Amino acid sequence: MWEHKKSMASRIEYFLKNDILFQEGLYLKFIQLVKIANNIRITLLKYEMIKESKLIEYIIAQLRFLETEEELLMTELLEGLMKARQCGA
Question: What angle do CA 44, 77, 84 make, to 5 degrees?
Answer without folding.
Answer: 155
